[in-house]
Design a protein that fits this description.
alpha+beta, FAD/NAD(P)-binding domain
């Protein structure tokens, strides 16, 4: 493991981004990889190193607490890095639509581009630099740059000894005593197990896999309409109604080159696959026609890769290449020699057949779900190279090439699949459609606002965005008001010393579609980390902030001082 990490550092420094500085967090992990403590003690243990887990660890460390952060991958950052998903954000993100630390992360990533990527003078001076030029948000960057930004935030705490990273460690089991977690056992890639002990544990895993391990009651898939009275919920509960997962990949287009090869595994199935959905999908998945997420009517897409040195052009229909473009040659001083790079997380590579977990889903079924996600993505790439309609009437773009150098992989796909929907804890409070829908909220003084939570610990804004599901449901895409994050949604109903620090918070199948995005996940993690730090300092359980108005006020004031917004203007 030590050698593998060192080799990856060397690879990252010698690849196409040779100007990138060493990743000091990984270097620190390398230095400690040989340590074989059988038992580690900390004040806070964070399970999961995605955006929520990183925010939680940062918040606790900045408040002087000792933290162990456990992550199964070699990369921290979850959906922004190892899953390779450019940030989905709200329109106010630059000035006040997130916590100050999330905006600090964005600025550190921008600084990485200015310091190490050779930008043009105009791009270097741009206060709102969009390095990739994609239009999914005003900030599209490549995963290596995002990893460097996270490194800058967390490295000082690693170096000071407050933060201990256990990368490439899987959760194994937990030691429970009544309604408290006493310890968690993790295992590294070489089979070495460690016992982690702390007064407070934070669940920030990508799939909510810590919930069953920690003995926390939870929900999988869709609740029935009768459980919370949500008008848009299905009539009956279906744990296998889970949003599609996506195995993202990065690619550029090199005119004059031919990267076509034999048809990939699964082509006989996916090459002409028509999703069986309700309402119906309009035709083959691998095409430039899909369902419009809101109206569910057929929607036409465009696909035209840019010329070398240029950003993706506008097309009559939305150009998929431009959608999540993560490298824009036009902002680089040597851009004339560069090819634009796009991140492929499109309707066409949603894997919507086999659920990832739930009743009847064992190791074989899970492996099949992951295999299908990889096959769909590689078959989409083959289709783009060989059959995709071109504006000149021809078919296929043979010059499309995978860019695994930006994703930390040899096969060109992301390190991990993009998991939109985790297991969700049965929390003391659950955010429902009625709390955030403009159709369901009352009008006051001519304005409809999302529910106001007295225990708010953060804010967010995104549509209720559910991709097609493994139950055969097509999109559910609903308008959503700017919302708050209630502290009660971070607290399990029963287990006393665990907090949700990510997507496993108390939301429903529907509201998860709005609360799962990058800045909201970060904000949930930051709130959990701050609450854990205050609980440790006072010697109390985290739930005291919910049961004591004075403690709740102290938490909210602490978050506000740290740059979190608790209310929308």
């Amino acid at each position: 493991m030590h050698t593998r990490r060192r080799d990856l550092l060397g690879w990252a420094a010698s690849g196409s981004l040779a100007a990138a500085p060493p990743l000091s967090i990984l270097a620190s992990a390398c230095r400690s990889a040989g340590e074989r403590e059988a038992e580690l003690h900390a004040e806070v243990v964070v399970l999961g190193g995605g955006l929520g887990g990183c925010a939680a660890a940062l918040a606790a460390c900045r408040r002087g607490r000792s933290v162990v952060l456990v992550e199964p991958d070699l990369w921290l950052g979850g959906q922004l890095t190892s899953q390779a998903v450019p940030a989905d954000e709200n329109a106010a993100i630059e000035t006040g639509g997130s916590t100050a630390s999330y905006r600090e992360l964005r600025e550190r990533i921008r600084a990485h581009y200015r310091d190490h990527r050779g930008l043009t003078p105009a791009a270097h001076a741009s206060a709102r630099l969009n390095p990739g030029g994609g239009f999914v948000s005003n900030f599209c960057c490549d995963p290596l740059a995002a990893l460097a930004g996270l490194d800058e935030l967390l490295a000082p705490h690693v170096e000071a000894g407050r933060l201990r990273l256990l990368l490439e460690h899987e959760l194994v089991r937990a030691d429970l005593e009544g309604d408290r977690v006493r310890a968690v056992v993790v295992r590294d890639r070489e089979g070495v197990e460690r016992v982690l002990r702390a007064p407070v544990f934070l669940e920030a895993t990508e799939e909510g896999e810590g919930l069953p391990l920690l003995g926390i009651e939870h929900v999988i898939g869709a609740e029935g309409r009768g459980e919370h009275g949500e008008p848009s919920a299905p009539e009956t509960a279906d744990p296998l109604d889970q949003q599609a997962i996506t195995w993202c990949f990065a690619m550029d287009h090199r005119p004059g080159e031919d990267h076509r090869g034999d048809a990939p595994e699964g082509w006989d199935r996916w090459g002409r696959f028509v999703p069986e959905l309700t309402p119906p999908w309009p035709g083959p998945l691998l095409s430039l026609t899909g369902s419009h997420p809101v109206t569910l009517e057929p929607r036409q897409y465009g696909f035209v890769p840019p010329e070398r040195g240029r950003s993706a052009p506008r097309t009559q229909h939305p150009n998929l290449f431009a959608y999540r473009q993560i490298l824009n040659p036009e902002v680089h001083a040597d851009g004339a020699d560069l090819c634009a790079v796009t991140l492929v997380n499109w309707p066409q590579n949603d894997a919507m057949v086999t659920p990832l977990f739930g009743p009847g889903i064992g190791p074989a079924e899970r492996a099949r779900a992951l295999r299908e996600a990889r096959e769909v993505s590689l078959c989409l790439l083959h289709w783009l190279r060989t059959e995709c309609p071109r504006p000149d009437g021809g078919q296929g773009w043979p010059g499309l090439a995978l860019r695994g150098d930006l994703l930390g992989t040899e096969d060109g796909l992301a390190r991990r699949p993009y998991i939109r929907e985790a297991r969700r804890m049965r929390a003391r409070f659950t955010v429902t459609e009625q709390h955030v829908s403009p159709v369901l909220r009352p009008e006051v003084d001519g304005v409809r606002r999302a529910a106001r939570f007295e225990d708010s610990v953060g804010i967010g804004h995104y549509r209720i965005d559910l991709h097609p599901s493994t139950s055969g449901r097509n999109y559910v895409d609903l308008e959503c008001l700017p919302f708050e994050v209630p502290f009660g949604a971070l607290l399990p109903q029963r287990v006393e010393n665990v907090l949700a620090a990510g997507k496993c918070m108390g939301s429903t199948h529907l509201t998860n579609g709005a609360y799962r995005l990058h800045p909201v996940e970060w904000g949930v993690g930051e709130a959990a980390g701050a609450a854990a730090a205050l609980a440790v300092a006072s010697g109390e359980l985290p739930g005291v902030h919910a049961s004591s108005s004075a403690r709740l006020q102290a938490l909210q004031e602490d978050l506000t001082r740290g740059g979190a917004l608790l209310r929308w203007p």
